[in-house]
Design goal:
Helix content is 32%, strand content 26%. With 212 residues, the chain is of the alpha+beta class. The strands form two sheets. Strands 6-7-8-9-10-5-11 form a seven-stranded mixed sheet, with helices on both faces. It has a four-stranded mixed sheet with strand order 1-2-4-3, covered by helices on one side. The two termini are 28 Å apart.
Length: 212
């Protein structure tokens, strides 16, 4: 296991453990986080633990042109009950992602340090958000890191049925128009699989990431 110090480096992702762990330690500086995402690595740990850096295989991704919208979801979209915005309230989106109760999880993995670091990256135009509003109230959204050709999704939340799916659909459509290669969804999720996300080998993901 590689333990990171002050030096701004990461080991090759092919050295990752079976669980996908590449390294432990380091910090959440903008420079390190950017290097991590550009290397196919992301932080995932709990409050009170050292930072754990992952690069799993297989990798869950969505190719924007493979987005699937069910007939029932098309009906929801046609009703026009929701308003979608981009980068209008990043702070509230990440705060909701951090505090929302999730049926399959005992708690949040978004630590206070992560919240501050991603807010800083948003202020620099690197981390971005999608907001879903209903009657003027924020009811869903997502955020992630924008690398220019890949959007690295981090977390989403929903306070009403379908809100996070709607955020993901609008993001996918926007990125397809802008010729993004894929959305990184990190690890398997039934919610995203229903929208067309699929698992690919880590090597295939890295090829797209590196423009190979």
């Amino acid at each position: 296991m590689i333990f990171l110090g002050d030096k701004l480096i990461f080991p090759n992702v092919e050295t990752a453990s079976k669980e996908g762990i590449v390294a432990i330690g380091g910090d959440l500086s903008t420079e390190r986080l950017l290097l991590a995402y550009k290397s196919g690595i992301f932080p995932w740990y709990n409050e009170g633990e050292p930072i754990i850096w992952y690069s799993p295989t297989p990798r869950m991704v969505l190719y924007p042109n493979k987005l699937k919208i069910s007939k029932s979801m098309e009906q929801v979209l046609r009703k026009g009950d929701f308003k979608i915005t981009f980068n209008q309230n990043f702070a509230e989106v990440i705060a909701n992602c951090k505090t929302i109760e999730r049926k399959d999880q005992g708690g949040t993995w978004i630590t206070n340090a992560m919240q501050k670091s991603y807010q800083k990256m948003h202020n620099l135009g690197i981390a971005k958000s999608v907001e879903v509003w209903k009657e003027g109230v924020l009811v869903g959204g997502l955020y992630g890191i924008d690398l220019g050709h890949i959007f690295c999704g981090e977390s989403m939340f929903s306070k009403t049925s379908n809100a996070s799916k709607i955020a993901f659909i609008f993001l996918s459509k926007k990125l397809e128009k802008e010729n993004y290669k894929l959305i990184d969804c990190q690890v398997y999720n039934n919610h995203l699989a229903s929208l067309g996300a699929e698992e690919i080998p880590r090597k295939a993901f890295i090829k797209v990431l590196k423009h190979i």
